[in-house]
């Protein structure tokens, strides 16, 4: 019997396929990988059950343009780091929580409905927690790249092309498709399991399967919701995450971003407020690769100056997925910019595999 805590070449190929088309039906994925739909679904269920990989949804870039995306550094008193992290895990507006090296404490990705709600959240929900000494907030002004675009290199070019045929066709320039509480519930439900069928989504959102199917398709096409496949980093050879802050002349920001988004290591690139006007998050094979990456960028982007950098010691929460000490997903608190309580996550299983896509 296969060890549930290991990933083999077939698993890597399956994960890569789901990175390209997270809601593709199992028969389509099986055809690309050369195995049956039943085998593909069973292998995925094992990965999800062990917390090694998962598909989840989150509010997408189209919403970010109308809402507020920010990163909050939380300085904690000695011994308060874990209690503060445990409290913030249950906050649906906290997308990710990282423990950073270098005395930075907690680094929290926050999504709120607007700037006023962000201010209230930081001052009352974060700042008043016992053990919190202070906060520093960086607000995104433009996002150039995000984590759903990162890929493994496990499929051939032909297989990648075949899977791309099952990916959602985004509508460029589309406005947010979120128009009702049903849409918000669909986004939260996808935050627990991004492969939920229309029937399951309908039950969670209180609508008909036809409505759930139609609204989910619209949310995906407009990028109001982003469904992505995540994997336990240490098992796929990319165990190090680092965040770098940099400055570049305002008139050179767009040009710098066009170079940065081509980096295979890139997880996030965003323009932000604060002393640095650019934040970059990368996934690396080894810590020493960070210095090599800086040398490369010094040559290709001499106008870019790094002001600080920090390595992630641990993820407490990652885009709604609550992580254990070994970097595996144990449950979800779906991301909800509108301030949901996370009730959906506490009443659900740690993960499930649906045998249908959209």
Description:
By secondary structure, the chain is of the alpha+beta class. Helix content is 35%, strand content 27%. It has 13 helices and twelve strands. The strands form two sheets. It has an eight-stranded antiparallel β-barrel, surrounded by four helices. It has a two-stranded antiparallel ribbon with strand order 1-6. Helix 9 packs across helix 10. It is globular and about 50 Å long.
Secondary structure tally, helices: 13
Fraction of residues in β-strands:
25-35%
- Unreliable stretches, pLDDT < 50, 5 or more residues? 341-358
Biggest sheet character: 8 strands, antiparallel, barrel
Tell me, briefly, the overall form. Answer: globular
Intertermini distance: 32 Å
Helix content: 25-40%
Order of helices and strands: HHHEHEHEEHEHHHHEEHEEHEEEH
Mean pLDDT: 91
Structural class call reads alpha+beta
* Total beta-strand segments: 12
Region (Disordered): 333-358
GO biological process, one term: response to amino acid
Domain HTH asnC-type: 7-47, 181-219
GO cellular component, one term: cytosol
């Amino acid at each position: 019997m296969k060890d549930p805590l290991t990933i083999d070449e077939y698993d890597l190929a399956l994960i890569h396929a789901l990175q390209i088309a997270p809601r593709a039906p199992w028969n389509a994925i099986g055809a690309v990988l050369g195995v049956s739909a039943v085998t593909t679904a069973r292998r995925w269920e094992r990965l999800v059950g062990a917390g090694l990989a998962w598909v989840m949804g989150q509010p997408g870039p189209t919403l970010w343009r109308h809402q507020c995306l920010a990163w909050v550094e939380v300085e904690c008193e000695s011994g308060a780091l874990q209690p503060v992290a445990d409290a913030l895990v249950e906050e649906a507006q906290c997308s990710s929580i990282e423990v950073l090296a270098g005395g930075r404490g907690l680094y929290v990705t926050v999504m709120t409905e607007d700037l006023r709600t962000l201010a209230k959240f930081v001052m009352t929900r974060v700042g008043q927690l016992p053990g919190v000494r202070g906060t520093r907030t960086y607000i995104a002004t433009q996002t150039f790249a995000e984590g759903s675009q990162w890929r493994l290199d496990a499929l051939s070019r032909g297989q990648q092309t075949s899977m791309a045929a099952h990916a959602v066709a985004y509508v460029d320039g589309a406005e947010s498709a979120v128009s009702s509480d049903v849409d918000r519930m669909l986004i939260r439900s996808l935050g627990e399991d991004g492969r939920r069928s229309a029937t399951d989504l309908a039950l969670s959102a209180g609508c008909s399967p036809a409505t759930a199917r139609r609204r989910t398709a619209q949310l995906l096409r407009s990028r109001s919701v982003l469904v992505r496949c995540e994997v336990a980093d240490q098992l796929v050879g990319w165990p190090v995450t680092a965040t770098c802050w940099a400055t570049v002349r305002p008139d050179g920001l767009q040009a710098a971003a066009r170079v940065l988004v081509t980096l295979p290591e890139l997880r996030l690139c965003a323009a932000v407020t604060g002393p640095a006007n650019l934040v970059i998050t990368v996934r690396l094979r080894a810590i020493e690769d960070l210095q090599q990456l800086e040398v490369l960028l010094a040559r290709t982007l001499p106008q870019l100056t790094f002001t600080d950098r920090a390595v992630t010691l641990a993820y407490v929460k990652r885009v709604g997925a609550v992580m254990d000490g070994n970097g595996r997903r144990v449950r979800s608190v779906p991301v909800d910019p509108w301030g949901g309580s996370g009730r959906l996550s506490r009443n659900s299983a740690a993960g499930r595999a649906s045998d249908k896509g959209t």
